[in-house]
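Could you show me some protein's one-letter sequence and the numbers that encode its backbone in two labelled lines?

___
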Amino acid sequence: MPNQKLPLKNYVPPINIKLSALWASLMFLYIYADYFMLFMKGHILKMNDGIMGPLGPATPQIMLGVSVLMIIPSLMIAACIILPPKINRIVNILFGVIYTLVIFAAAYGDDTPFWILFSVIEMAITLAICYFAFKWPRETQ
């Protein structure tokens, strides 16, 4: 039967690749949400005045804190592939929980529909990171 098509093969990536992809997706969402926020009336004026949203004046300390906040998930993309499984699992659960809380805190009280949408999806991703890391498969004998 030369015309018979075989079913598509389902590739199941290793857990560390799944986690890396989730962190990469999270970073894209962060970037786009912040980019779209630039189009909100008055936002760029506040930026020009050195005001960083609810964080207030963009002091060197605030900028350092925000930098660390963005550096960690950026590095997690590679860390998921590089770190050994035991450390990888712990770090993913830890940062998954932390970033879920950070995203919730950043969205709390905001009524901008697109920001809420991004925040909900971002929290779903960070919770998925926690879930997949928690369910990390064990070696079989």
